[in-house]
Design goal:
- Helices cover 49% and strands 9% of the residues.
- It is mostly helical.
- The chain folds into two domains: 92 residues, Orthogonal Bundle (Helix Hairpins); 102 residues, minor pseudopilin epsh fold, CATH 3.55.40.20.
- α2 runs antiparallel to α4.
- Bound molecules: fe (ii) ion.
- Fe (ii) ion binds next to α2.
């Protein structure tokens, strides 16, 4: 996914509204593979949920993004660059939404691992203890952020631009990178992430995410980036 973005063509289309023809009409983005089997998170998240969430919803964001880029004549192959640039242009809101949702979901899959969850180890534990006092307080605040978020969105653990650990809820497709924050892990709070398994019990889903699914090694790796 790390290819070269064609700045000139992108900016031309943004500011001059010039039609831009793609040199390579093939879709630039593809659905990244799941880091585990669709049934690997059972009994906490069912294979049925992942079949729809990954295979239909995430695939849908990728397909729509490719379609929009083609329609708008935009050549852009770095997803992060698409997100950064489209976030600054109201006219590209649908591009932003689909690009960000592609990025968010890829990050979410890696934020979970079979046999994960519980109190972390390593540098992320030290940061949690320094920031929240103890793990239970962190868990309480993360769950509150997940249950109080109105509508659809995400709950993130981030490092802000002062290198401070924060729990940050975002609405819809919004994400830390456009707020000068480094994402460490995320929990998808859209209903499609949990409704088949937990119906309206979002709190139960967020607690299961923390107790049984969080990939703390992924958070520790992101701390070092
Ligand atoms: Fe989702």
């Amino acid at each position: 996914m790390k290819k070269i973005i064609t700045y000139f063509l992108f900016f031309s289309s943004l500011f001059l509204s010039l039609p831009v023809s793609a040199a390579d009409p093939s879709p630039p983005f593809t659905l990244p593979p799941l880091p585990y089997a669709e049934n690997a998170l059972e009994p906490y998240i069912s294979a049925r949920t992942l079949f729809y969430h990954y295979g239909k919803h995430h695939q849908g964001y990728v397909d729509t993004l490719n379609k929009l880029l083609k329609e708008k004549g935009l050549i852009a192959s770095s997803l992060e660059q698409v997100i950064e640039m489209s976030s600054k242009s109201p006219a590209l809101k649908t591009v932003f939404n689909n690009a960000a949702q592609d990025w968010n979901h890829t990050f979410y899959w890696s934020s979970m691992i079979p046999g994960g969850g519980g109190q972390p180890t390593g540098p992320i534990l030290n940061l949690i203890l320094k920031t929240f006092g103890n793990y239970d307080e962190f868990k309480k605040q993360f769950m509150e952020a997940g249950t109080k978020l109105f509508g659809s969105g995400w709950v993130w653990l981030v490092l802000d631009n002062h290198n401070e650990l924060k729990i940050v809820p975002t609405k819809d497709a919004d994400l830390p990178m456009i707020h000068d924050q480094k994402a460490l892990l995320t929990c998808d709070i859209w209903e499609h992430a949990y409704y088949l398994d937990y119906q309206n019990r979002r709190k139960d889903y967020v607690e299961v995410f923390l107790d049984h699914l969080v990939n703390w090694d992924f958070a520790n790796q992101n701390l070092l980036k």
